[in-house]
């Protein structure tokens, strides 16, 4: 009986234990169905699966399809790419939850196909002595496509100015100033080279001197490492720009639709009168190839230009004429521009695609690139679009297979009319301003995915540095076997961080070079932009040489930019890896201490530059120093809270609270009144600056201005207060929530 | 053995069952500790406990202590109230988690105690024929306190203008215009009565006509239902203003510290030059009592003023003189103002107190009132402060006892320097702009808690209407037995709602009458303001008659405004009830469909007023109609989601998502560029308006202006686009999050 009793007790004990185990683990409590989901973190095996499935041959085929025809914004070719994106993303097998188009009626500028712009040299008797090319030379059938737009300067006014030619270097204010010291510029035509100043600025800076028209070309020194011969040295023999290649572009200084500032450009939206637009050329301007520029510049009279003004031509870039030298066949002749551009309001589309988040659908990671090109745009932007389509293919398939759904929602944006001034992305942020401000975790921009095959190039908010590093360590560098993108990158661009030691250098997004601008400057969203790029020690090219020409084709890309598409693949893997981490991490991979380091770097630059002169004006930098110190201290504290918390097992509202602090950090740096003269620049840390100092942009600009302008120290003091308050405000958001 | 086996099986089964039960219910899962908390809703028994503990005698004693001495901003008396608040809130037994002071250096204006402002009648030979009172008559020791500030107009410039007196009614633009048709106003002194125009505007409107100084007084018709005798009719015999009573006030049109627009007024903050301040009187202005005004006005020459201009004096308010009538002893005499106000930057404090939230500490319900008065300020503002102290006593005790901790954090603000232009609250919102924008659920303002004993008066965002109704149904109306505040209120102020039928009328917070202004207009936070007030059918008083005089004392309040303090108690119960519901509700009690109804009301007012004239200008109202319809549809949908969800049992991130949509709704209506001429007004629905139409303020003002000004229809179109985009943007935030 004792034995039986013991067995009974034992059985009972076993049954009790089994019961407890079943009760505890086997039966889902009312909250059990979601408790596991809300605590989930990034699944590293899923990241590996993603990396292995990204396929260079798919990217190649995407690019081939996207670049069949020229697809300049709002043209039939653009509509073909809209349809392609919609077809891919709306395919029920694609795995995206939704895809649609968003249309805006935007202000664009085109040449007249029936009356092409002309640049000629005309004799005093009005005989045409020379005519610049109207089209680029045909090397492949691509250049022969009827839809290749004539090279032109979008937003240049129409007009037919005529005058003596002068060479004005890069068209910077200092260039015209120097030139004007010896030449009366009234009524002249200035020829300038790309670089040094914004496109529109070359004309804006010229107008006050009475210049009546401007030409712009790409000097072989700046793009081709000096090479000029299309018989052997340039495309189709290499990646270099052929002599007839012309960089097209948008000649404006603000971004977004210019008729509807701060308003989404819908049909009935109020539009300002076109005469009220600022930041566009007040006088006609036209780009030409260096073949023509050579003919004009090397015939100029006057004395030799300073060395810094000279490019790659075998002549002295004379200045001082004005006009051609007496020994020239063009002697006494004028240069005449006949520009027939017209402005039109046209329908431009964004194509949007969404993968809905499972746990936090109200948190967005946005990934975007523009779709429109100037001509075929194989590199700009279709390299990026090919990568985006490959990402949506691989991610969508995981969703479709049921193996994955991101914690947060992912929004893909294929922006329209970027080339005319980042219009599609800017209108999108205007239309959905509040919603996007409140919910967007980060924006990833991949425009030109590959400039060249040497190394990664990344720019973004410092808070994103860490997740970029993590991703790049997991991706193989193209063509280097087992070397990671990270290990390769650090050899090309690095710095020593006070916290991390030697690390790759991540740039800052201080300008409006691509569609990240509205996300960074208008919305204050943590953003990044990546690409693969060249070895600066091997070339001085400003950018890849076919940029905005009719040579930026699939042929060019696949032969000279990325044969095998392995750099495209590396970018897709890197960007996708970052995307998955932003979408899936339990704690957002946004590091506020790295942000603090950047603010300290800026402060450490600013103090020696400005402090003593400000003190002499009775202006203290102490509030700024205190603000940066507050930020550092709050960031350290928040990091400590994150490290010391067991967030997977605490209330999901705690990790949400921390994630909100991280997500919204950049919003604190916005001040709609900080930069009254800069359209849609609100971020006091990353706004563009003309002072050229690696520090707080508004402070640097106000200081530079105060040194030039009597009575403007008050503006420096004002901006210091704006800046200090913003940084203190950001620190408050990182501190304990109450 | 079979039996034993059966017993064994039975025991085993029991043990298994017990085990399962223990396992399921007895052992807390890792998330069990928080799962219950996150699903908790308002505890109605706790609300009842709160209501029963609010005690009128505590409120009375709070008021007695707060009103011992005058406590004008930044004076020693103000510091005493700071110390009182800190003592109460920092007391370890009080139950608040934290309390502290926040200091700002703010721009104020005071009379010179050594050189009091004077108003005299002087003969052509410069003999003083009459001198207006410099102090109010003493009826109780309170008026005899040395710290009673002389009546003055804060921000009136110093100066000693002298001239013929004219009566200018309320000092509206139309008043000066009418007067100027028959009188040359250059060099005159205008006497005006309070009402009809803002304080500063009475001088701002006068200056263009060459008026050199302005007097302002309170007419017995406007405040005392015509009664004038202090021997029997006015205080201390009734609540009416004694003949020598003078309404002090701040004579400025913008709110917040005027030297630091959009910046918190800290020591090193940039300050604009005082000369750059706008919205303050350009010429001296001084308030006087009706006793003196009577002596001056009834001696005036010229013809009788129109009926609408006349007040309660037994004379014809002559206008047309200028100057006194020939039969007057003052004939040929001038009126002279000698104003010695000085402006100073002084340290003003907010006192802040916090009860930390248990589940969502990063969500704030803010409750506030100013602390500073003009003199003893028993009603304005100490009635509200007495109520706030009673709330913190009762709520703090529940925290201290461990019976309660709010789900969300509660922040109490005792604002400084409100009387000078809502300065303390405005600086607070500037300093913590981002943090407060991101996290604040609602702001409750109780300034003057009790004007009189008849009925509740409430204003606020329509989204708060429902929770105000709920709370008022649970509170007994003062002196009416079992009648609720709600049932009493609906008899005095009601409307018929399309959704709810007859309901009490909740007003809108369209101006800057108290500290809610920065929360509504600058931050876009759902806000409300409540008080107990009078029966409009029984008195025409503009406001309670001792307002801003030396008679606003404990004696006055306890005898004539709220004997027994039962209306104070009703306000404390109502405001506290709303506060608890905002802090504790699982789903925020913010109703977006009620907001939709208000937008529809505004639209239905706007269409018949504006549509046909706008159509004639080629401007369509369709985008606005579509936006309001989108908002309605999104609101209906969100309400449906809330109703159909079992939020207590779903992931806490779902209710958080919905609550974020509700909390952030008003943020979507902000546009920092919508009202370039109105300082810190960004809310496109509730901004102040001068057009006097119950509809969208910017549209109404732009339309009114377009009818007067050639070429300004574009501004109407522009504002329509701003407004439509904001409402569409708000609708996007209410729609499905992806």
Automatic annotation (TrEMBL), chains A, B:
GO terms for cellular component: apical plasma membrane. The chain crosses the membrane at residues 7-27. Its cofactor is Zn(2+). Residues 350-558 form the Peptidase M28 domain. Residues 619-734 form the Transferrin receptor-like dimerisation domain. CDD domains: M28_PSMA_like, PA_GCPII_like. It is found in: Apical cell membrane. Pfam families: PA, Peptidase_M28, TFR_dimer. The keyword Ligase does not apply. It is a single-pass type II membrane protein. It comes from the Eukaryota. SUPFAM superfamilies: PA domain, Transferrin receptor-like dimerisation domain, Zn-dependent exopeptidases. Keywords: Aminopeptidase, Calcium, Cell membrane, Disulfide bond, Glycoprotein, Hydrolase, Membrane, Metal-binding, Metalloprotease, Protease, Signal-anchor, Transmembrane, Transmembrane helix, Zinc. Residues 162-250 form the PA domain. The keyword Disulfide bond applies. GO terms for biological process: proteolysis. GO terms for molecular function: aminopeptidase activity; carboxypeptidase activity; metal ion binding; metallopeptidase activity. Homodimer. Belongs to the peptidase M28 family. M28B subfamily. Aminopeptidase with broad substrate specificity. Has lower activity with substrates that have Asp or Glu in the P2' position, or Pro in the P3' position. Lacks activity with substrates that have both Pro in the P3' position and Asp or Glu in the P2' position. Lacks carboxypeptidase activity. Lacks dipeptidyl-peptidase IV type activity. This is Aminopeptidase NAALADL1.
């Amino acid at each position: 009986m004792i034995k039986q009793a013991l067995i009974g007790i034992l059985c009972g004990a076993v049954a009790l234990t089994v019961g407890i185990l079943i009760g505890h683990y086997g039966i889902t409590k009312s909250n059990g169905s979601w408790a596991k989901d809300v605590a989930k973190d990034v699944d590293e095996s899923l990241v590996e699966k993603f990396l292995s499935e990204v396929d260079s041959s798919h990217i190649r085929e995407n690019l081939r399809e996207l670049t069949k025809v020229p697809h300049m914004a709002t043209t039939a070719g653009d509509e073909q790419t809209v349809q392609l994106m919609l077809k891919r993303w709306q395919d029920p097998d694609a795995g995206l939850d939704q895809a649609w188009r968003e249309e805006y009626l935007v202000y664009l500028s085109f040449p007249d196909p029936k009356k092409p712009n002309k640049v000629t040299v005309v004799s005093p008797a009005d005989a045409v002595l020379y005519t610049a090319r109207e089209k680029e030379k045909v090397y492949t059938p691509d250049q022969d496509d009827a839809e290749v737009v004539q090279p032109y300067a979008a937003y240049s006014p129409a007009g037919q100015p005529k005058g003596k030619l002068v060479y004005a270097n890069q068209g910077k204010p200092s260039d015209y100033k120097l030139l004007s010291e010896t030449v009366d510029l009234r009524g002249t035509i200035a020829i300038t080279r790309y670089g040094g100043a914004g496109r529109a600025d070359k004309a804006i800076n010229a107008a006050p001197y009475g210049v009546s028209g401007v030409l712009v070309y790409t000097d072989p020194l700046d793009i081709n490492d000096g090479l000029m011969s299309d018989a052997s040295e340039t495309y189709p023999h290499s990646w270099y720009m052929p002599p007839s290649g012309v960089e097209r572009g948008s000649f404006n200084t603000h971004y977004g639709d210019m008729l509807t500032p701060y308003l989404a450009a819908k049909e009935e939206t109020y539009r300002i009168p076109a005469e009220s637009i600022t930041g566009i050329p007040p006088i006609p301007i036209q780009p030409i190839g260096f073949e023509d520029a050579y003919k004009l510049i090397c015939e100029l009279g006057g004395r030799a230009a300073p060395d810094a003004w000279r490019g790659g031509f075998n002549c002295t870039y004379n200045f001082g004429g004005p006009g051609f030298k007496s020994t020239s066949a063009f002697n006494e002749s004028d240069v005449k521009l006949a520009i027939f551009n017209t402005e039109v309001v046209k329908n431009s589309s964004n194509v949007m695609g969404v993968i809905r988040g499972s746990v936090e659908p109200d948190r967005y990671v946005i990934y975007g690139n523009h779709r429109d090109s100037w001509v075929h745009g194989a590199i700009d932007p279709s390299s990026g679009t090919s990568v985006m389509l490959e990402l949506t293919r691989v991610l969508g398939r995981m969703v479709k297979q049921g193996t994955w759904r991101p914690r947060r929602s992912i929004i893909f944006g294929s922006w329209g009319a970027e080339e005319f001034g980042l219009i599609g992305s800017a209108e999108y942020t205007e239309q959905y301003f509040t919603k996007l401000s409140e919910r967007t975790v980060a924006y990833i921009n991949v425009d030109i995915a590959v400039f060249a095959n040497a190394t990664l190039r990344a720019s973004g908010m410092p808070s994103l540095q860490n997740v970029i590093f993590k991703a790049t360590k997991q991706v193989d560098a193209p063509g280097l076997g087992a070397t990671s993108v990270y290990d390769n990158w650090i050899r090309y661009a690095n710095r020593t961080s006070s916290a991390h030691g030697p690390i790759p250098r991540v740039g800052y997004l201080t300008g409006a070079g691509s569609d990240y601008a509205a996300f960074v400057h208008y919305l204050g969203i943590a953003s990044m932009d990546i690409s693969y790029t060249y070895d600066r020690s091997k070339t001085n090219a400003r950018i890849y040489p076919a940029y905005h020409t009719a040579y930026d084709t699939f042929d060019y890309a696949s032969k000279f930019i990325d044969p095998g598409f392995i750099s495209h693949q590396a970018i897709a893997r890197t960007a996708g890896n970052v995307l998955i981490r932003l979408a899936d991490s339990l704690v957002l991979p946004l590091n506020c201490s790295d942000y603090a380091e950047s603010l300290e770097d800026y402060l450490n630059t600013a103090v020696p530059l400005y402090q003593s002169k400000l003190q002499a004006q009775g202006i203290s930098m102490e509030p700024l120093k205190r603000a940066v110190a507050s930020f550092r201290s709050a960031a350290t504290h928040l990091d400590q809270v994150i490290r010391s918390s067991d967030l997977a097992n605490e209330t999901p509202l705690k990790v949400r609270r921390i994630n909100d602090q991280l997500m919204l950090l950049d919003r604190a740096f916005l001040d709609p009144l900080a930069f009254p003269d800069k359209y849609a620049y609100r971020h006091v840390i990353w706004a563009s600056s003309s002072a050229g100092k690696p520090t707080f942009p508004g402070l640097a600009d106000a200081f530079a201005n105060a040194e030039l302008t009597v009575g403007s120290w008050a503006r420096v003091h004002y901006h210091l207060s704006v800046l200090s308050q913003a940084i203190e405000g950001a620190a408050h958001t990182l501190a304990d929530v109450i």
